Amino acid sequence: MNTRTTQAAPAGVQSVERVFDLLEVITAAGGDMSLSELSAASELPLPTIHRLLRTLVPTGYVRQLPNRNYALGPRLILLGDAAGRQFGSAARSRLNEVVQELGESVNMAVLDGHQAVYIAQAQSNRSMRMFTEVGRRVDTHDTGVGKAMLATLPEDRVRAIVTAAGMPTPTPKSIGSLEALFADLELIRERGYAMDDEETELGVRCYSMAIPHAPTPTAISVSGPITRVDEEFGRRAVPALRRAAEAIAHELMSGPA
Hints:
The chain has 257 residues and is of the alpha+beta class. It is built from eight helices and eight strands. The protein has two domains: 11-73, Arc Repressor Mutant, subunit A (Orthogonal Bundle); 77-254, GAF domain (Beta-Lactamase, 2-Layer Sandwich), CATH 3.30.450.40.
């Protein structure tokens, strides 16, 4: 359902709002939608949707599939990549602060379709450290950043994301069922942070936290070998991540000084 407040606006501005409404509806669906589904979800009349699509499809911001449903178009990838790089760059100083405090590598990721994509990283100076390439895409059900983001979403969207992506189990500790995932997400909401406890790679543990009020689901994480990233480390990591997440959220809301 369209959650934007309906206000009187000039025709040009209203058209722009409706374009973004439509793109957000398709994004939230996590896949493709029919015209009737677009109309029901956006609360826009079919003639209006037809008119908007006549502009969005030829310009590449929306694409029509062989089954005549509609999905996000490739033109948005360029915008998303640029926005992600700028977003990550703006937060990098906060990530560096966490590295200086904890001594382990720190990452930032956003939800992109059915996966998480890393957009920034601050490296530890340790000789044995965790390295995640910026731009790398990972599943959400078995990563700290992924689960932190999923915990902020309604159950139906989580189900759609995970069902579309699948639930591979790269280690014996990986979550392999929706039932187990939903139980873990409830625990994450209760305690305020997520963990990847050797679920992506044996010998590696990660603490993660979502950025509150981010424009798109976003999370930061700190990770390292289980010999260093233990329970005592977690007691220091959680407040450090919380301070960084709140600072990044504040900067997103207020803009650059």
